[in-house]
Hints:
alpha+beta; 9 strands; 51% helix
Amino acid sequence: MNLADMLTYADIGQLTAIAGRYQCDCKRNSKHDLIQSILITLGSRDFMETHIRDCTPEELRFLNMLLFDERSKFSLEDLLAAARQACFDAPAGKTGGYREMVSRFKSGGWLFSGASQQSRYLFQVPEDLKNRFRERMGQHIKEHVVRSSEPAVYRGEGDLLAGDLLLFLRYVMDNELELNQEGALYKRYQQGVMNAIQVPEPLLGKGGWRFGYGRACEHYPPRMALLYDYARHRRYISEEGYRLKLTSAGETLLAEGKSERLMQLFTFWLKLYKGAVPNLPSLVYWISVSAEEWVSVSSLVEGLGWLIKPFYYDDAASILEQRILRMMLHLGMIRLGETPEGPVVQMTPWGTEAATPKRLPK
């Protein structure tokens, strides 16, 4: 529902609170006057721009989470969890408490209780406010992103990841692969995989921390780890004792010779990295909005870094550059180039299409 519909179902107490918040000039005892005045105020051209400018980073993160959440209705516990997650870098007490944040958005016309008996304890965000926030937020982020000229040389991987999945499965089928006591392929087999696929990576060295980005990230470099975790998830491979083998499903896929769709790999990647980067879908979307043309990676870090919660030893910059942009390159979603000023990036047509959640208007 849109704002006008939700205002109609709202009680006069919430309407009065919203009108008071925005200093609406209307009769406070007339529901009709309250609704009309609120619609005029929140529907004005400069409302969203002023609202975004006046919001704290925590409040913008909170709205960003609600915009990209797959759910259309939220319990109070859902909202409090989102508020808590949005305040990851705020000093204790600065936000005034998570319940107060939720209350501010309710009195601000962003959250409304359901109209039916079943949904009266659930909250919704007006669809038209979501769309206007998305558009203005995109402009707000793009203001910090610096365009670049096209680099002389750039790298794009297209659909090579899907092709390398088949090459990896064929290598498993053609070789008797042994796993060590940690459940990982011995290094000689890992190198064999790298020699067999189209986009090899350096094998992992000793030391360093590796967790949070899928089960296989502990043992293999990021692109191979994604292939391995995906193949295991789809049950194309199985770990039997200390052997890695192809399953009947894997054999069928190879016999058909049909590559997986990149969208399947992209969707799996979003789920795989969700624990470490909970708002990954929104970050991918904002990258697509910002990098329609060539832009500098450093300015993307500046424009989007405040949305990223550090994950253990990964700070916002390393998460964006290594965990997100690097994997988007492997998924064929971006091109990555180098200029004298530093690395630059541009979305591919397929990447732009995939980055927009289906429930958001194009």
